[in-house]
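INFO batch 0412 | record 1 of 1 | parsing
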Amino acid sequence: MEIKNYFKSLNVLHLSLVIGLTIFFIIALVQGNGFNTDINANRTLLYLVPVSALIGYFGSQFLFKKMLSSVQLSDSLETKLKKFQSASHIKYVIIEAPAFLALFVYYSTGNALPLVIAGCLLAYLFVQKPSKEKVLQSLPFNAEEKQKITYK
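INFO prediction complete | emitting tokens
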């Protein structure tokens, strides 16, 4: 497995998810019904958004760590990187789904709270950008594997 191509594909996937969510954010903002703060209309949807955002935020962290906890030092470098990639994909989806829900609720209700929550989730997804440092911190590597990752 080519390390350079691995990080390039992981970054392209992350960037495409961020760009897609950003485009949907802009569309919902531009075509929305304006802003309101009425919490009495569509209360179920307005309560669903913060709950799903909390589940997305904490659930993404929990599942990411849980999936990577099964990685052993004795696993091959390719196996470790594939597990990191799978865990990252799941983390991104778990963050992105509540953001899309929040944007949908904003678009249908015009309430500003879901828009703010979607913006926070978008910012959080953006800072989850994969890097060599994050891989090195998240997985157990021996010295040879660290050198392969660092110098490629």
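INFO post-check: Helices lie at 3-31, 43-68, 77-109, 112-127, 132-138, 143-150.
INFO record closed
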